[in-house]
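Collaborator request, handled under Task 6.
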Amino acid sequence: MRVRHPFRVREIAAQAGLSEATVDRVLHGRDGVRPSTARQVERAIADLQRQADQLQLGGRTWVLDVVVQAPLRFSVEVRTALEAELPGLRPAVVRARFHLLQGAGPAPVLAALRKAAGARSDGVVLKAPQHPGVVGAVAALKAAGVPVVTLVTDLPGSPRTAYVGPDNRGAGRTAAHLVDQWLGPAAARARAPAVLVVRSSGADLGEDERAAGFAEVLGSRRVLEVRDDETRAHAVVEDLRTTLHEGDGGGVRAVYAMYAGAGGVTAVLDTLVQHGHEPLAVVVHDLAAEHLALLRSGRVSVVLHHDLRTHLRRAARVLLQSRGGLPGPVRSWAAPVQVVTRFNVPLR
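Structure tokens returned to the collaborator:
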């Protein structure tokens, strides 16, 4: 049986440290070759292929567009994380163009995706809300030969190449399990303490998945929900005050903040204290500076952490793999979250 390869016998022989005649016998499947010798030739071919891939990667510059519609806090973390990972992609030379967008409407996202399509992009990392226009723009990018990897939140119905980010449903289940353990058995009375859930004001599949997982595990506990806004710092405080005023007075004993916009978790906790509520458990997402300070001060119980650097490194590799710039399968990657307390904060 012949071994397929793009290399000359002389190259393989030099790499394997064997004679050309021996290599020729292995490649053509002739008798009289020891299995160990055949494996030696196979390793030599694999080594030559890796070296050829490295030469190919080093021979051009790959340009990726990063389109993120999110609070500026998160967008800056994405840029910082990817810039830290780009040197690790060598010998590939990868440059990133960042489109860090605020607001909830699809118009800036669509403009950024059109710009990427017309600017010879080698791939797009996309964090955007669900919208038919965005799905259509991803389809247009695919038709133009530009792969798209969705980051942190997926885009169902779109022909994206892969999803990279946390297992959002698993994150919601984890949050509910922690809250359940801290609060103990659920009270049966009508004025039972509530669990406050903080969400964004837009449409986001990742949050929907977190909310679904949270509801699966939390069971029959009373839940209050408020919305934070990316652009209005007082939106979450106003919504929370209204929600507390209209509630049945059972109190808020736990908080699950799956999103922190312009208001942030600090504003939520301060407002609760002002209204006489002292949560026993506070679970938040992301090791942002605000959350890290709250964690160390004891106001936040745990942070559900997903390592953006790892996600962005994988996203970049997937885009290069989809363009033939790196070997390996092109596939999605949904990672479990890490439960971080003030005693096990990862090095950054």
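The cover message to the collaborator said: "The two ends are 51 Å apart (CA to CA). The CA atoms of residues 56 and 325 lie 7 Å apart. Please let us know whether this matches your experimental observations."
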